[in-house]
């Protein structure tokens, strides 16, 4: 896929699952569960032991069907290894110019992390495709996104941290381009028990919430409250 096609897929789906797991095997299981739930995008974080191997395996098996990205990318050297492993997009917890430049030079989509308005503008002007607002829950959650979008409507923001079934709709209504969802979707307990169907069911709920919120529909309490 081209860089523009990847951007559009992220916007269309509206969810970037953040996979943190205690092993590459569990990360792959989480990825498969998320995809089974209707989310054809995933971010394997560099905190996963064997993360590069997991990305390689997922790319080999699912690369034609889903977007496979790398998260918690802290520098350009790591970004290069992610690219070599098959990742098509990068996600960073904070802004680092060299990492954004690497992504731009190699045609990779990047969601650079930022928090303050100054950081967000800097990341956007440096060439980030999306700006990951992290940790969003610590500075107001959905209301913070709304406040940012008033002066910065042109910047596609992806809040991460504090996004769950109760808050997802508000994040979308307040202007989020997509949602970064980690432990509230990729449940560690489900991975430990092997009950990954629980993750698939959660994925379906998040997909429904995003669609309903974008269409201006009321999100049923039975969905948002569980």
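-> sequence recovered:
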């Amino acid at each position: 896929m081209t860089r523009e096609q990847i951007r559009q897929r992220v916007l269309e789906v509206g969810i970037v699952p953040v996979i943190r797991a205690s092993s590459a095997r569990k990360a792959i299981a989480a990825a498969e569960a998320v995809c089974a739930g209707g989310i054809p995008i995933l971010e394997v974080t560099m905190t996963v032991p064997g993360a590069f191997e997991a990305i390689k395996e997922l790319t080999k098996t699912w690369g034609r069907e889903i977007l496979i990205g790398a998260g918690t990318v802290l520098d350009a050297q790591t970004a290069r290894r992610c690219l070599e492993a098959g990742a098509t997009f990068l996600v960073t917890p904070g802004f680092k110019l060299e990492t954004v430049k690497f992504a731009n030079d190699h045609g990779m989509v990047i969601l650079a992390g930022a928090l303050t308005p100054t950081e967000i503008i800097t990341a956007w002007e440096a060439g980030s495709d999306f700006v990951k607002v992290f940790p969003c829950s610590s500075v107001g959650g959905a209301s913070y996104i709304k406040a940012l979008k008033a002066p910065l409507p042109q910047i596609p923001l992806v809040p991460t941290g504090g996004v769950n079934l109760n808050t997802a709709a508000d994040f979308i209504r307040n202007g989020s381009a997509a949602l970064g969802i980690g432990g509230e979707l990729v449940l560690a307990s489900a991975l430990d028990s092997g009950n990954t169907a629980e993750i698939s069911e959660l994925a379906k709920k998040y997909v429904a919430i995003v669609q309903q919120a974008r269409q201006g529909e009321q999100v049923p309490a039975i969905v948002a409250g569980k």
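The longest helix spans residues 197-214.
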